[in-house]
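re: ur question from earlier - yeah i can do the single chain one, its not a big deal. heres the input i used so u can compare w yours
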Amino acid sequence: MTATQPCSPTLHIVGGGLAGSEAAWQAAQAGCRVVLHEMRPVRMTEAHRTDGLAELVCSNSFRSDDAANNAVGLLHAEMRRLGSLIMRAADANQVPAGGALAVDREGFSAAVSRALHQHPAIEIERGEVTGLPPADWGNVVIATGPLTSAPLAEAIRALTDESALAFFDAIAPIVDKDSIDISVAWFQSRYDKAGPFGSGADYINCPLTRQQYDAFVDALLEGEKTDFKDWEAITPYFDGCLPIEVMAERGRETLRHGPMKPVGLTNPHNPTVKPYAIVQLRQDNKLGTLYNMVGFQTKLKYGPQQRIFRTIPGLENAEFARFGGLHRNTFLNSPKLLDRQLRLRAAPRLRFAGQMTGCEGYVESASIGLMAGRYAAAEARGKSLSPPPATTALGALLAHITGGHIETIELGSRSFQPMNINFGLFPPLVQAPTRRADGTRLRGNEKTAAKKQALSARALSDLERWIADHLHVPAAA
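and the output i got, formated as tokens:
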């Protein structure tokens, strides 16, 4: 998108992750001069390994790309319509993952970095912003993510007079494909689903008998875990990214109903015997040489990881390109602290974006960065941009973050927690579908699917109307 009226003053964006990168791109496309501040490599974090912008430190999956039946797939479609750099880079660096959108993480980061470095309106400044941004930065987006540096986090706490909430995110291991025994494992997507970029055989599956599963769970429970510092001891986990050993602690069958569920798959080496549990691995780079263990985020120490994960059939000789790990996340009590334009009520020159706002997931973080960039650009031109309708995925997520959450008043407690996009955040349909095209009544799963498809169709229609009414020009391709 290009603007007819120049932006003033310069927009400063702190943090070069997915949200900050997307915010910088959107604002620059709107005609703003942008300075993107990224502290790496001057100062590294516990989870990052490179100085690349938009480096993926956890999974390489952006999850489902099905815009008709899945809320995150719908969010993908909305972001593409709004000229998202993150989605453009993801599409250009896609690797097979069934119906999911997964990327070559190095190629993805390189594509985002290249686009931002080459944009004439964007300057990238390396170095840590220690404390609150200088007072003469009149228009700021803070998108420092789950690993916000301590000086900046403390300054934000002091400004808001409120402690930020925190939780742990765990990282799954990555395995060298050639070290996986394909005479035991096999390639197949659940229910042979090919997806837009897959073949129906995009995952490597490792089968376990009941005896092997029970022994695996015992080993998880007994394995030596990462030690916490005193200040970390009371930090909770985000339920969408639980370490596997924490899931195992919640019940011996929990893993079989989560990442190790044995459904939609048939072992070609022994088709008459149904595995008791299955471990899936998904391609992690474009070359197809690395695979990550799906849902196997862990806080096990490296030695126990290697020993325990090599008990999985097919992974007896696994070579690990990266072991799993654990990092601490930080986010604001956004419904209380931020306004509808993502500005900090206590200091409106500061906007927040990404995981700091209380969204969870790569795409969700980038989408909030997209909106923060557009809000900041509009304000720099002396304009005001209305949020997308709450019927859209973007609008529903923004509404949850900035006001859709119900506060818990008793004893001053707060229950606001990170949230992935889901259809539960959308306003209900005026009239949900009840019948098929031939007039017969929808039942069970068909009815649920029809409702999701109707919510998605409404969202895309309402987004187009919002673009026409509020952006006044076509979104960037």
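The domain at 11-164+332-427+456-471 is CATH 3.50.50.60 (FAD/NAD(P)-binding domain). not sure if urs matches, ping me
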